[in-house]
Fold:
Amino acid sequence: MRSLGVEPILRVAVAGIAALVASSTSHGDLSAATTEKTKIMNHRPPSPIELAYRAGRANDGGDAARAHYRRGIELAREVLRGSPDDPDALLWLAANLGGEALTHGKLYALGVISEIEGTLLHLDRVAPSYDSAAGARSLANLYWKAPAIISVGSSKKAASYFQLALQRAPNYPGNQAMAAAFFADSGDCARARPLAQAVVARADLESHGVDAAEWRTLARDALKDCE
Structure:
């Protein structure tokens, strides 16, 4: 089981949520309960909110990155004022909040994690199947990576939300890989192995885009941890 100190964990928590929210928009398999409306939304072009986040990531920190993230936050809040349940705005608001927080430092990030959590909880409540259960998947990673004593971290909540993500989109490799990594890290190899093996065995993994390499690495590392 890997162990990190509080400061590295905090940085991973915020950076991880921003990155994991971004990766949650890859086009994956949806559960049978997914509505036609959600399917259409999953395949629409990137929104200006998402593009602002990606521009911030491309600038690798500093004032330029912060300006892009803030623009994304402003755009998201503008959309949410008119449509409080818009899933794209909720998802990318969380990502931009995480990205912007990193430009200020770890202490600032502590205060932002709770808003990220609330935004993702809202997303999970109003659009549970959106982007292959992006809300549940992102919440699971937040609860896994955030420090428990000084923030929202909770292994119990992480396990619960990973299970929800797997129930809603069981064949989505992002759900499988991230859940495998969590269960392996928790020492639950009986649950980690089949999930990791399913990811490694997929012949179509590359079709899921740029996140495929990360998912494959997570799966292989989980299998290694469980040897």
Summary: The chain is about 70% helix and 0% strand. Confidence is low (pLDDT under 50) at residues 1-12, 26-42. Residues 172-227 form one domain.
